[in-house]
Amino acid sequence: MAFVLIPIGLLLLLGSLAGLVFGLFMAADPKNREQGRLFAIWWVPGVAAASGVLMRDVVTFTIGLLCFLLAGAVFAFADTSSGRPTMNRRRGTARGSKRSERTTKENEVDRNFNEAAS
User: Fold this and answer.
1) What average pLDDT does the structure give for the chain?
2) Alpha helices in the chain (DSSP H)
3) pTM higher than 0.70
4) 87 has which bridge partners?
5) How far apart are CA 21 and CA 31, in angstroms?
6) CA nearest 64: which of 7, 1, 9, 3?
């Protein structure tokens, strides 16, 4: 039985470390920074659970697995929008900002006034 747990633990450990490294790689890109951090943090308890399998420690495995599931739920339900306004690609203005405070009617009045004055 012990010989069966070692390869399973090693596979879990390698998979968890690969997830952790991938999350850090994602965090290096400014577009995916927040998601990459969450992804990397999610895999830390996975490493703990895999080490629990390697050490044949039921408590370490159970705590690591529970933390992994909880972190996965946070990762799945996390609000990925940051506090920064996003750019509107069509107009180049920040979302929620107005291009001009003036209304169309005010612009027409000014245009008519400028044409009459010339």
Assistant:
1) 79
2) 2-28, 33-54, 58-77, 104-117
3) no
4) 94
5) 17
6) 9
